[in-house]
Amino acid sequence: MTSALGETMEAGTSARYYKHPSGSSSWLQDGKPLDSGSAHILDNNLSHLGAESVRCWVADYAPFSISDDGGYGNIVGETNPDAGPEAAQNATPAEVIWERTTSAVYGPFPAIADHEISDRGGLTVRKVRVKFRVVATVANGLRVMCALTRSEQTPLEDQIAFGYDLVNATGETVRTIDLEADVPLDPRPGPRSRVDNVTNQAVVSQEIPVWLWVSARQLLAGSYGVVSVSAYEVRE
Amino acid sequence: VSAPGVPWKPSPADLRRLRSGKRTSGDHGRRWCNEVNFLATVPQPVCSSLIRSADTVAQSVEFFYARSIGVQVLKLVVALESLTLGGSGTVEVTLPAGAAWLNANGLDGSVALTAGRSGLQSYGSIEALVDVSGMTAGSLSLFTVTCTPYASNTLGIYRIHAAEVALASVDPTNYPTDDRGANPAWCIPPGKLHDGGASVGDGFGRLFSESDYARQGVKRHWQVLFREQRTAIDVFTASTSFTGLAMLSGLYEATWYLRAFRPFKTTDGYAHTFAVRYKTTSATKGGEIKLVLNSADAVTLTCPATNGAWATASGTCTVPANNTDQLVITHIKGRVPTGDGTNDKVMMRAAALISNGA
Fold first, then answer.
1. What is the tens place of the pLDDT at every residue in B11-57?
2. Which residues of B touch A7 (CB under 8 A)?
C-alpha cells in the first residue's frame, strides 16, 4: 500500500467496504456530534475505495507480429544496432524500433500519481502490471518488453518505465512485467472536462496522460506468438 | 466556494484520530469531501485495442460504454493506417443517444483524413472529445466507428482508445443531482453536523451517499475489440460443445487477465454486465457466447440468429475476487449448437465486462 492511502479498520485482504445508512435516513441530525463509529466507517470506506480504485488498461489479442530484427527492417534506412549473438545478453528499449507492425501502443491513459517511488521518495503514476500470454517452440528464444511514455513518442525517445522478460519455457506460458516509473509526476492541464454550469466557460481538467507500449523480439530460430496482452494497475 | 477543485490523489490519515467522545476536527470533514470528490471522478479507461483494419472497403468497429455517475466528457482516440503511401478516406463515429460532439476533430465523417503508411514510426493519432453528460449514467450504450476509404485507397483503423476525462471541479451546491461529490465548505468545526436539506442533499449526510456512489457509480470497464472483417479468430462455428477463440492458427485459446474489484470480502464477488456485439451468418441458426472466469462459467448469452446484422447480447455475472492478487483469468467461448457445420457461424466484434454492483 502506498503512502497516499489512508488506514483501514482491517488490513490486507481483510480490508473491506462497510455499507452504512445514507445520510438522508434521519440518523444524522443538525447540531449533533458525528458518532465515532460512523466516522470510522466513512473514513475506512473512503480509504478502501481509494485502494481499490485501480483500473483495467488493456485487453487485446495477438496485437503485433514478431520479428528477429526488432522491426528495424520495416523502417527505411534502419538497421538494428543490437543484432547478433550478443543480443540475447542485452535488453534495452533500442532492441526494437517500436514501429506499427512489431509493437503496439495504447493510450493516453489518465494516470493518477498516488504511488510512492520505491527508493527516492515522491509520488508517481501507479504501477502497471502487463501480462503477455505467449507461445514458444524454443526456450529462451523470445523476449517480451513493455514501456510507459508520457507522450506518443516511442520508448526510444520518451520512456518513464521499461521492463522485459525472457520467455524461458516452451509451449503456452504467461510472462508478467511490472512497470514502475521512477520519476515524480504531477498532473498537467489536459482537455476540457466540460463547460462550466455557472459561467458557461470551458473547464480545463488536470491529468497525466500516459501511453503503454508492448513489443517482443525473437532471439533464436523457432515459432513464437503473443496470444494476448493484458494490463492493469496494481497497488503493490 | 461553489466549485471545489477535484483532488488528483487520495489523502492519507489514520483512524486513531477519530475517537469516541472526542470532537472531530472539521478538517477531517473537508478531507472526506476531497476523498469523495477524488473517488467519484476517477476517470475510467473504456477500451484500448489495436484494430489493424487497413483495407479497400469500409470497416467498422464498435465499443460499449456505460457512463460513470458525474462524468461529463469522453476522450476518443483513433489512429489510422494505410498499406500504401497516403491512403485517404473518412472516419465517422456514430454517437449513442445523449452524446454530442464537443470537438469531433474530423471523426464525424466531414473531413478527408490521410494515414501514414504501415511500418512508419509516426502514429498520428486523432483525439476527439464527446459530451456524454446527456447519457443515462450506467446504461449500456454503443459507439460505432466506421472507416471508409476513398476509391483506389487503402485505409483502416490502426487503433482505438476511449477513456473518461477527469472532472476539473464539482459543483454540488448548485447542481446536487448532476454533480457528484461534496463541498468541503459544508464541514464546519467544531465537530457539529449540518445534515443538509433533503432537496439539496448537502451537509455531512451527503458524504455517506456520495461514498456509496463512488463504489457503485464508477463504471469499471474491461473490453476487447475485434475488427469487422476478420474471420479467423473471432468466430464460433457449429458445435455442440463450447470452443474458445482460436488464436494463432487455431492452436491456442485467447486468455486475458484482469484485477477484480473487491469492495467487500474476498469471498464476495462483484456484479458486472457482460455484453457482446455479435452477428450470425444464418437467418435461422443462432448461437451462444459464454464468459468463463477462473475456469468457472460466469454467464452464457443466448445469441438469436441475426442473418448478418450486428446485434447486442448481454447478461449479468459475478466477477470473483478470491484469487491471489485478485487475479481473474478470462476466456470467451461460443458455439452454434444447431449449425450445419459449414456455414452457420457466430461472429463477435466487441466483448465488454462492466461493473454494475448495487
1. 777 777 777 777 667 778 888 888 888 888 788 999 999 998 888 99
2. 12-15
Shortest Cα distance, chain A CAs vs residue B262, angstroms: 7
Please name which of A216, A65, A97, A81 lies closest in space to residue B122, comparing C-alpha atoms: A97
Q: Measured between CB atoms, does B309 come within 8 Å of chain A? A: no
Is B293:B332 a contact under the CB 8 Å cutoff? no
> Looking at chain B from residue 248 to 307, which residues have their Cβ under 8 Å from any Cβ of chain A?
248, 251-259, 261-266
| Residue B52 region by backbone torsions, left for phi larger than 0, else alpha for psi between -120 and 50, else beta | left
Best of B219, B234, B252 to mutate (most A CBs within 10 Å, chain A): B252
What's the predicted TM-score (pTM) here? 0.93
The three-state secondary structure class of A50 is helix
Q: Taking CA atoms, what residue in A is nearest to B36?
A: A46
A201 CB within 8 Å of a chain B CB: no
The Cα of B59 is separated from the nearest Cα of chain A by a number of Å equal to 18
- pLDDT tens per residue across span B183-231: 877 776 544 555 555 544 566 778 888 888 899 999 999 999 988 766 5
Count how many Cα atoms sit within 13 Å of the Cα of residue A33 in the half-sphere of its side chain.
13
Written as one string, the DSSP assignment of A117-139 is -TTT-SEEPPEEEEEEEEEESST
The 8-class DSSP code of residue B37 comes to H
Cell output for A180: 514502475
Is residue A95 within 8 Å of residue A126, measured between CB atoms?
no
Contact A99 B120 (CB under 8 A): yes
